[in-house]
Specification:
The chain is mainly beta. The protein has 1 helix and 15 strands, in the order αβββββββββββββββ. Strands 1, 2, 7, 8, 9, 10, 11 and 15 form an 8-stranded antiparallel beta sheet that branches. The two termini are about 15 Å apart. The N terminus is likely disordered.
Length: about 200
């Protein structure tokens, strides 16, 4: 849950984006999201701070975003900012579909405290059930860093948004609707918050 000063904490903060290598760590826990335009709340294994605000849970959308204060099921992506959707990470926001067998959102934990990584893997198709969109969001214990790692993403970045948003004026976009870096298998990026805590 965000503190009363959540919006103020995001003001003027930006994440630096860097491309890295990496592979998806397969999720082993099925969170139960096997829907179309569905959001599922997941309790985090450790407190994670986004824009200097600590959160203990996250709302994971079948459409490829992780909302910390909202539960919006909008499937049509847009370029950032997504107005009033504060404290959201967009690994790969697109019109995704988790209904068919074998698809869903799966989590796992790497490492040991106090240096754990919470891995959130989307195994998705594109609506209405074609292609493959496999990607992962990794949250770091004790850090504001997060990674996004792409496996197979059939449609690349042609109709998707990736980035992070603290509020309507504090956001950093990686790509949107074919503009920006491509989303290709084996490619990933990290975002590290420079703002003082």
């Amino acid at each position: 849950t965000a503190t009363a000063t959540a919006t103020a904490a995001a003001a003027g903060c930006h994440y630096s984006i860097a491309q890295i290598g990496g592979s998806i760590v397969p999720g082993t826990t099925d969170i139960g999201n096997h829907g179309d335009d569905q959001v599922t709340n997941v309790v985090l294994p450790f407190s994670y701070s986004l824009y200097n605000i600590p959160f203990t849970s996250v709302n994971l959308s079948s459409t490829g975003n992780a909302q910390f204060t909202t539960t919006d099921t909008t499937f049509t992506n847009q370029c950032l900012p997504w107005l009033t959707h504060n404290y959201t990470i967009y690994p790969y926001w697109d019109d995704l579909y988790l209904v068919n067998a074998g698809f869903g959102i799966f989590t796992s934990i790497s490492g040991t405290a106090p240096n754990r990584i919470f891995n959130i893997e989307w195994r998705a198709q594109y609506f209405p059930g074609s292609g493959t969109a496999n990607f992962e969001l990794r949250l770091y214990e004790g850090q504001s860093r997060f990674d996004v790692i792409y496996g197979t993403v059939t449609n690349a970045n042609t109709s998707a948004t990736a980035g992070v948003q603290g509020d309507d004026s504090a956001f950093d976009q990686y790509f949107c609707n074919a503009v920006g870096s491509p989303a290709t298998g084996g490619q990933s990026y990290i975002l590290q918050q420079p703002c003082a805590t």
